[in-house]
Amino acid sequence: MTTRTHPPGPPPPHDPDDERLPCGRMLSRVWADWEDGATDAHTADCPHCREAVADLDRLETTVRALRDDTAGYDAAPLTRRVMDVVRMELRPGRPLPLGDHDEDLWVMEAAAARTLRAAAERVPGVRAGSCRFAPGPAGGARGPVAVRIEVHAPLSTPDLHVLAGEVRRRVLGAADRLLGLDVTDVDIRITDLVEEPDGAPDGRTEGGPR
């Protein structure tokens, strides 16, 4: 990508679901400027803008690899669909309640999802995908939530039930210790079995099930 040093252009039209980064820039503007190859002193030095660009760069690298794997037919519609879905995943989403019922503490879905995906990926060989939240049985604005997370597991996994149990344990632990999020259920969906690169862990969970 060629980088220009002139100031970025005007931001895209406002989207009510757009995210404002902690630095004040809109996420859509940072992404649009990166795709146009435009930058300024702020985006070059701001850690929040750099992190947003890194997220998009990783996403587009993954999508390009997918497109290369689908040689032989027009993958452009699929590429656009994947980009749209994951862009939505990177948006802040709705607030989720933290702490006790009488506390006014909240975390945005996107931030919680990143934390729980990272926890799932602590199981060797696991790669986490979509992470969604739904109201738990109690319901209500400050009620507990249920989590559904999709993962890719190593093809060499000897027991998928054991692996799913370890992923669930890690996700529940992160929700409790790192977020203070009351989770009633974690639905683990193994969406694919993948070959691991040379030198990667063999897919056994650390220490086995607990």
Automatic annotation (TrEMBL):
UniProt region (Disordered), positions on chain: 1-22
Record InterPro entries: Anti_sigma_zinc_sf (IPR041916)
Keywords assigned by UniProt, alphabetized: Transcription, Transcription regulation
Top-level taxon of the source organism: Bacteria
Protein name: Asp23/Gls24 family envelope stress response protein
Annotated organism of origin: Streptomyces tropicalis
